[in-house]
Amino acid sequence: MDTTFISLLYPSEAARRAAEAQTVPVMDDDACRELGLSRMMGLKNSSLSACFTRDPEVILFRQQMFSDLNRLPELEQTLSALLPVLCDITELRKLGAAEPEDSGGSYLYSITEIELYVSMIDTVYRGFSPVCDKLESEAFLRLWQFVRELVESDYYKNLNEDLSKLVARMHEVRSVTVGVNLDAQLRPETAGVISVNSERFHPGTALDKILRMSFRRDAMTCIAALTPLSGKGQSENRREALCGAFLGALEEVFRSSVRGWRAIVGEYVLENTDFLLRMLPEIEFVSRAAGLEKAIEAKGGALVRPAIRPMEEKVLCARGLYNPDVALRSDTPMVANDFAFDDKTKIYVITGPNRGGKSVHTVAVGLCQAMAQLGLRVAAQACEISPADRILLHFPQGADDTIDKGRLGEECARLRVMFEQMTGNSLLLLDESLSSTGACEATYIAADVLRGFGRAGCRCVFSTHLHDLAAQVEALSRESLASGGVGMDTMVAEVTQDGTRSFRVVRARPDGKSYARDIAEKYGLGTEQIMQMVQKEAPMP
Q: In CATH, what number does 302-514 get?
């Protein structure tokens, strides 16, 4: 068979090897969880962090593949049907590896694996056949060509015929007649196979057989009740003897036909199915990603194939950007915003009221970048984007690491790691960082952090309640540009005069308000509400 490279995620063996050689992922698994991406994808057989790519050629290859999936629902249905078969083969190989090579169990596993192999190839062939002339992506065209040549080969046809005969013979075996020799104390001494039968034995008694007077035609009726091989009252020796006799019978029956046949077919099966087994993580990823896109569209969300720009341009321009995780988990109308890392600005500080959409928008930017570098469509109406070499997050975390360091120490330690891992081509997302200390100290530290980001030239979104920090952004931007760094600007989560949140995030100067008071009043903690609760009637004289 043709050994053409086949992959749904990589255009060439060199591209896949280059990806495997990358020791540092675009996003680690913790970041995937924090963005909600792990939950949305729900992978079980692979790590999502291993699916990201920085290579524009690989992204375009995947975009074409997903385009076929979007146009042709038969492809998604085929991959969904193929996935459990691949998982079954993987589990079967694990079970078979634990069996002795020439045991009856080993023969059965071999036959079952080949049955699953044929089922797997047939699934792909039947699923692709109706739409083969509509395929456009190189990924699916290669897979279809390989499977079609395989199915139409004489060897495969002969394999199917031989397998059908062998499986039919195996399925006809319903019972085994075993002869047992006893010693002087009537204990089982030796056992051997008398016959392999296509009928099952039935329970009975000696009197039943005598009354029927049909001994010759009643060979499958026992003269005693059938006894389970396991359960109370069964000694270990007895169970081992019976099981040994049964497996010995299977080995005797199938040894001559399966042993030689397996040696010939096994090599062929490994040669022509291992590529699909290697593709199990890819097929799962593609199947789950297609399901995610379908779920977002079912919620009324727009999805667009982003235009890929060179990494060094550091672009992310999106019109109608929204957070797909929020869209999937909410029945309220989605609020979309425009966003741009452009020639003037690569770093944004977002301020605004509590629960006004700052964090949601920050995550939306991260998901847009992540989905683009997985090869998926992004949650926006229009988008052009440059790949990032790393997507790094600094989000609020639990108290696990604060026992030794304290919360501020833990936050500073994670910021130090971010500086060690980032480059000028990285995307950094910070949400309420340094909120564990006073506003004055936090603003001082955060300003230095922004100076470092600006000098490095990375892209960054920093959502914060530190309004004094936002007030310094203009001066920090001038300082960064003067030192050869990138520009900075502010964005604000809008709110009306009466405190209503619009959840729109716009590029504007902050007004210095957090609108925390109206949230307190909403939950009954306004000044008048508190005073009313603490008022007490005058004590009785």
A: 3.40.50.300
